[in-house]
Amino acid sequence: MELFLRAHRCARPLVAALALATSAAVAARPPFPAEKAPPAVRDAVRDVWNRNPAVRAADARLDAAQAHTQAAGRPIYNPDLELTAENADVDTRSVGLSQTIDWSGKRRARETAATAEQRAANAERDEVRQRVALDWLRGFAAYRSASERAAAGAQRADLLAQFASLADRRFRAGDIAVLERDLANLALQEARAQLAELAAEQAKARQLLTAVGGDAAALPPLPNALPATADSTAAAAQLTDLPTVRRAQAEAEAAQARVTVAERDRRADPTISLAGGRVTDGPFHDRLVGVTVKLPLFVRNSYSAEVSAARSSADAADANQRDVLLRAGADAEQASATFNALRDAWLAWQQSRAPSAVERAALLQKLWEAGEISAAEYLVQLKQSVDTELTVMGLRGRVWEAWADWLAASGGLAAWLGLDDTSTTFGESAR
User: Fold this and answer.
1) How many structural domains are present in the chain?
2) d(Cα 159, Cα 365) in Å, to the nearest integer?
3) What is the DSSP letter of 137?
4) For residues 182-207, b (16+ Cβ closer than 10 Å) or e, as one string?
5) Interval 7-20: pLDDT, tens
6) Fewer Cβ in 10 A, N or C end of the chain?
7) What is the pTM of this model?
8) What is the CATH number of the domain that holds 297?
9) Residues 198 and 289 grouped into a single domain
10) Cα(223)–Cα(215) distance, integer angstroms
11) What domain range is 290 assigned to?
C-alpha cells in the first residue's frame, strides 16, 4: 500500500505536466465557439452578476483567500523583547532580544499552500459566475418559450370559444345534434384547463429568473438564428479550462502543499536570545552579556498524525480531481448529443413549412360549416395542430437551454457571452 502511494505521488508531476501541455495546446486553438451572444444577452448577464448574492459571496471568498496569501507570505515569528530587574545580594539589570528562526522553511511552505488555495477560490468564483449565468440562460429560454406557449394556448382557447359559441347557435337552429354542442363545450373547458397549466409553467420559468436576480419584464428576445452544431471533439480539449476542473486541480495542489506544511511543522525551529546588562554587587559593577539557544524537543508529540492526515487529504483531493475530470468529459459528450438532436429536430420543423394553428382552424371551420367534417373531426384535428405547435414552441426553448448546457460543459460560455478577455479568467473579465 505504501509503495502504491509513493508511486501515485511520484506520478503527480507527470500529470501536472500533461495538464500544462494540454492547456498550452488549448491556448493555441482559435476562440471557441465562433458565435457570439447578442449584446442584450451579454449585458443582461452582467447585470445579473452585479445583483446576485452568490456571486458577491464568491468575490468575498476570493478577497479573503488573497488576504490569506499575503498573510502566509509574511514572517511567522516576531522578535521578543525581555527586560529583567532583580534586587538581591547581587542586583541584576538586563535587556534581552530573542528571535525564533524559520530554519525549516515553514513560511515558504505555507505561502505555497495559500497560493494554491487562492487559485481554488478564483476558480470557485468563476464556477459560481458560470452557474449563475447558466441558470439565467436556462430561465431566459424557458420563460420565452413558456410565454409563447401561453400565448398559443390563449389563442387556442379563443378559437374553441368561438367554435363553442357557433356550435351553440347551430344547435339552437337545429343544424347539429346536442352531442356536437356538448363536445365543443368540453373541448373549450379542456383548453382553458391547459391554459392554466401553461400559465403555471410560465410562472415557474419566471421563478428561475427571479432566483438568480433576473428581471422577466426586461428580457431580450430569443435569437432567431440557431448556433452551429456542437463538436464534442473540440470540447475534450477545453475540459482543463473548465472552472470546476481548475478548482479541483487547485484544491489537489493545495492539499499536497499542506502535506509539506505538516512535514515542516515537525521540524524544530531554534530560538536565539541575546541579552546585555549590568550586575551590581555592592561597590562592584560588572557587565552582563548572554547568549541563549533554545530548541524544542518533540518528544511527547511528534506531530506524525498531522502528516498522515494531510497525506490522506491529498490523496482524496487527487482522486476528486480525476473524478471531476471524468464527469466533465461525460457531461460534455451528453450535452453535445442533446443539443445536436434538438437542433436537428427544430430545423426539420422549420423546413417542413407546416401551416399555423390559426390557418388550420380557419380551414377546419369552413369544412365543418360546409358539413364535410363532423365536430369531433374538427376538434381532433385542431387539437393535433395546436398540440404540435405547442410542442415545437417548447422545442425551441429546449434547444436554447441545451445550447447553454453545451457551452457550460465545453468551456465556451465565456467566449459566447463575449466576456473572455485574454488577460483574465472567466470571472475577472466582468469585474
Assistant:
1) 2
2) 10
3) H
4) ebbbebbeebeebbeebeebbeebbe
5) 344 434 433 433 33
6) N
7) 0.77
8) 2.20.25
9) no
10) 18
11) 80-103+268-302
Residue with cell 463538436: 231
Range among 334-348, 352-366, 373-387, 412-426 rated most confident: 334-348
Q: How far apart are CA 111 and CA 70, in angstroms?
A: 8
Pick from 414, 355, 412, 352: nearest CA to 382: 355
Q: Which residues have CB under 8 Å from 337's CB, separation 6+?
A: 232
Looking up residue 108, the CATH number of its domain turns out to be 1.20.1600.10
339 and 401 in a single domain? The answer is yes
In whole angstroms, give the CA distance from residue 324 to residue 336: 18
**CB-based contact 48:134 (threshold 8 Å):** no
Grid cell, residue 127, equals 464556477
Rounded to a whole number of angstroms, the distance between the first and last alpha carbons of the chain is: 47
- 425 and 285 in one domain? no
Name 160's Cβ contacts closer than 8 Å, sequence gap at least 6.
184, 187, 188, 191, 379, 382
Contacts of residue 346, Cβ cutoff 8 Å, sequence gap at least 6: 226, 392, 395, 396, 399
